[in-house]
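Encoded backbone
================
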Amino acid sequence: MTGRHGGDGALAVTGIGLVTPAGIGTRRTWEGVCAGRSTAARDPELAGLPVDFACRVPGFDPHRHVPGPRPWRHDRFTQFALAAAHEAVADAQLDPAGWDAARVSVVLGSAAGGAGTLEAQHHKLLHEGHRAVSPFTLPAFLPNMAAGQLAIALRAHGPALHTATACASGATALITAAMLLNEDACDIAVAGGADAMVTPLCAAAFGTLGALSRRSGEPAAACRPFDRDRDGLVLAEGAGVLVLEREKDAAARHAPVHARLTGHGSSADAHHLVTPDPEGRGLHRAVRLALRDACADVHSVDHVNAHGTGTVLNDRTEAAVLHRVFGTSPPSVTSAKGVLGHTMGAAGAVEAALTVLSVEHQLVPPTANFVRPEPAMAPVDVVHTAPRRQAIRTALSISCGFGGHHAVLAFAPASTTT
């Protein structure tokens, strides 16, 4: 196979920043995911709804965790993005005061933007009148504002873009950033996703769709990716940001490299607004495109970080596609959503970061709440109970979204070629 990224054109992941229900910061998130304990708990803001639990980022204080003045002006999703991005830039040993700002790009994905701001301000309009609506409403809730605010904060004058492919948005942002780097539109890309959709309206909407787990009596056991008894996803919030550079540029400045982004693939089901194609044709195509772009064959893929929502249809379709691609030599599979819940537009970036960490540490976190597979589901090697130490030459991170969007990223260790 031939591809753009699998050889000398691979991109270096030089920085990682995470804000998730497992903790604020990459270290805490990684430790929490490796521990395999669900973060789902009852949420006072969802009281009275049929599903009253979710996965919240614990102890997040905008005044402490968001650099810059007046963080209260930003919606929660932008606050998460700013915190994660600053960690990623620092991790990459980059200083915005000293870089060529015209050559720095920002690409952030979100499924909903400032949903919390919109709900709160709409409530004010209805109950207090138009004069009570904040002048910061539009700058806070517009989905592109996380990218805009981050460009301001980092003094980044290159392309500043927003991607929206529902729950694949963060992965699509990373793919877009990779394209910008490979087209020489920038030298550094700060890319990822953020969402804060743990709100009454979003919870009610997902609930009426039948997408949420109803295990109100045991929230910590609610999200069960690939398990026989799964009954839906758990709403969550957070952000994930990676710093990407061309490998030669990272080497020239002696930058730390966590892993290499070697390829990617995107596709659409063109089937249904919220239901995956039962044959998995779109996802299968995206996986194959990512492998081709990475110059990798199926035998070199040792691990897959699955979309793994814990919904009946997604897990069944995803398992069938993985079995179709990899056959009788399946890679290890994990889903972080058993621990973190579904962080929506942030999920693709958060899980890409976790895939990078798996490659870097040669360690696969367990899938929380997986006990036994559905008998009718195609067999997949789900890592559960405890982390698995293994050799990982190539790892895939899979993301899917309402509307039939698919985005697949391929990563390899920093010290080897695929």
